[in-house]
Design brief:
Elements: E1 7-11, H1 17-33, H2 44-52, E2 59-65, E3 68-80, E4 85-95, H3 104-118, E5 124-126, H4 133-141
Parallel strand pairs: 4-5
Antiparallel strand pairs: 1-2, 2-3, 3-4
């Protein structure tokens, strides 16, 4: 029996733009399949400018095995006034379908939690597209809890 290749998680960099774009498009196709009206707005230019420019809006992690990208997570710092604490927003989590249930999603979320903890955050928060029941089941399995009293809202400015 051969050795099981090690799954690693590392910080995303500007040089990962091409593989992240490939996975973003895979994620978008998956969301459209679920009924979302997803458009590709998180382009390579946005990734580089917004993640690696003078005022980064997010940071990310990538899971790999033997150099193959398995998935990624993007995080953004935030604050919860009601609880009086720093939090980290999980703004995107994608694990490629062919390797789901391999531990990549759990490894990415564990690394996201540790990255957030190191920045002083005490909680992760994320939104889930309601028809994405696979994601909802995954989040429940890792201990995620719904925020029963809140609905997400937005205002274009």
């Amino acid at each position: 029996m051969g050795a099981n290749p090690t799954l690693t998680v590392r910080a995303l960099g500007a040089a990962d733009v091409d593989i992240v774009q490939k996975m973003v498009l895979e994620f978008g196709a998956y969301l459209r399949m679920l009924g979302d009206s997803w458009d590709h707005n998180f382009t390579a230019e946005r990734y580089l400018k917004d993640g690696f420019g003078p005022n980064p809006a997010f940071r990310g992690l990538i899971a790999e095995r033997e150099g193959e990208a398995l998935g990624y997570v993007l995080l953004a710092p935030n604050y919860d006034v009601d609880r009086g604490m720093r939090i980290e927003m999980v703004i995107d989590l994608w694990v490629r379908p062919a390797i789901r249930r391999s531990g990549a999603g759990r490894a990415l979320m564990a690394a996201a939690a540790e990255t957030a903890r190191q920045s002083g955050a005490r909680s992760l928060l994320w939104a889930v597209y309601k028809p994405n029941t696979l994601a909802i089941d995954f989040y429940h399995a890792i201990g995620g809890k719904p925020v029963a009293d809140l609905d997400w809202m937005y205002l274009d400015i």
